Amino acid sequence: MSKILVGFDFSSGSAKAVDLAIDISNRVGFDLRLVYVKKENDDENAIRQEIERRIEGVRPLFKGIDMDYVLCEGKVSQQLCQQAEECDATLIVVGSHGMSGFSKTFLGRNTYRTIAESRVPVLTLREDFNFNKNLERIVVPIDSSPDTRQKVRTAAQFAKIFGSELHILGLYTSDNKTIKGIVDGYVRMVASYLDRHEIKHIDKFVRVPKNLTTTTLEYADQINADMIVIMTEQESNLTSLLLGNYAQQMLTESSRPVCTLRAEQVNGLAK
User: Fold this and answer.
1) Which structural domain, as residue segments, surrounds residue 32?
2) CB 3.0-4.6 Å disulfide test: which of 32, 202, 204, 237 passes with 67?
């Protein structure tokens, strides 16, 4: 059976990730798995005892689901992605730390690398995310790139799960008529898909005066959005796998949960 995976390190950010993962799991009926990546000299028994104590603490929130955990050692991103493959995960949920950006410890570079390497979508949220508010409005940016529409299926699944309204944001990165025509066509296709699946949506077109990230976040602020769904492209260098600039900026600057996926990711939250 598919599971939802949560990166956990006892921080408040990862605790918020567990809360949101439980909510999603309850709605789709998937079990949860916590993944704790320990350091070489960590006290394994103490870590296990604390994880088990925390699982028992949230167990009253479960509605027909269950949660297990894995304690492993190695590179965080590799372990998260490996566990996601082993348990046929449909989603990885990770937390971050505060408004100043991602922590440079457990969930900093590790988060970026997890997103770059993962074969399933990765949902990131800050520790100050307002969990008491439902995911009512989800922003889906659409530009002229060939893969831009492939995020729509995942966004639509979240909309079905939470009863959300999708905001399809057509981004004009140029005044060139051909570019604008491509964006217009993509948005029409997305709207048709959402109409067929009876998903509420609002279509908005915006000229990008600065950069894609700033424009997307400004719109998300205007509508008080609860999530942003984006694609990312990987750029290789000699030593590492890096996210494209748009994804890096979005993850660093967004105060809202961001679901990031690659074009080849086909897993979903649908049962």
Assistant:
1) 3-126
2) 32
